[in-house]
Specification:
InterPro entries: 7-CO-7-deazaguanine_synth-like, Aldolase_TIM, rSAM, rSAM_QueE_gams, rSAM_sf. This is 7-carboxy-7-deazaguanine synthase. It comes from Pseudoxanthomonas sacheonensis. It catalyses: 6-carboxy-5,6,7,8-tetrahydropterin + H(+) = 7-carboxy-7-carbaguanine + NH4(+). The protein is of the alpha/beta class. Helix content is 22%, strand content 23%. The protein is built from five helices and nine strands, in the order βββαβαβββαβαβα. It has a nine-stranded mixed sheet. α1 packs across α2. The longest helix has 13 residues. The chain is globular, with a radius of gyration of 17 Å. The chain starts with 15 loop residues before the first strand and ends in a 6-residue tail after the last helix.
Length: 226
């Protein structure tokens, strides 16, 4: 693994990103769940989902040169890197960071709200794209044009707050044939939907989706930096 920033983008690394935190933990969800992972949490998000657990990333943060971000990731000595937020794509230079991390040899994932165009994300990145349900309070922000761009490297995630959300998400999966494009993940919103109820619904309907709970919340609750 080469942590150096490739020479062909050195000029771009004079650009900076506003970062809330960079930390090592276990990936708590999606395809790389359980792997030791460096999380690069960018500051800022245009959405205000009612169940958001990272509102502390909406504001503040510090400016980092992209080369310094890559160097900080290298210090942790693991292969997996997750770029998250907030909404990381709300900072356009996030695309430069994603490319730099891929060129440095990392297994890179991006957690995105699905409200911003993903077309220019490096194809080596695994995109974990949220689809916002009616109970999220941000359903109108879904960018449906993103769905045809998804590939087998990507995942779609629904955070569900109740039975109405479940039925809505079930219809979206069917209408857009999402399970034929990539893995589809259903998660219960903490304190709003019983994990057992969601599991029972998925089994009863034989849905082609993966039930998941957020491992990091089971281990560390909502503690920042974990």
């Amino acid at each position: 693994m080469n942590a150096a920033v490739p020479s062909d983008i050195v000029q771009s690394t004079t650009d900076r990103l506003k970062i809330t935190e960079i930390f090592l933990s276990l990936q708590g969800e999606a395809a790389s769940v359980g792997w030791p992972t460096v999380f690069v949490r960018l500051t800022g998000c245009p959405l205000r989902c009612q169940y958001c657990d990272t509102a502390y990333a909406f504001h503040g943060g510090d400016w980092w040169d992209i080369a310094d971000i890559v160097a900080e990731v290298a210090k942790h000595g693991v292969r997996h890197v997750c770029v998250t937020g907030g909404e990381p794509l709300s900072q356009k230079r996030c695309l430069i960071l994603l490319r730099a991390l891929c060129d440095a040899g990392y297994d890179v994932s991006l957690e995105t709200s699905g409200a911003i165009d993903i077309a220019d994300v490096d194809p080596r990145v695994s995109r974990v794209l949220d689809i916002k349900t009616p109970a999220s309070a941000e359903v109108a922000r879904n960018r449906w044009e993103n769905l045809p761009l998804l590939t087998a490297r990507d995942q779609v995630k629904f955070v569900l707050c109740g039975r109405d959300d479940y039925e809505w998400a079930r219809d979206i999966v069917s209408t857009h044939k999402l399970s034929e494009r990539c893995d589809v993940l259903f998660s219960p919103s903490k304190s709003e939907l019983s994990p057992r109820d969601l599991a029972d619904w998925i089994v009863a309907d034989r849905l082609p989706v993966r039930f998941q709970m957020q491992l990091h919340k089971l281990l560390w609750n909502d503690e920042p930096g974990r």
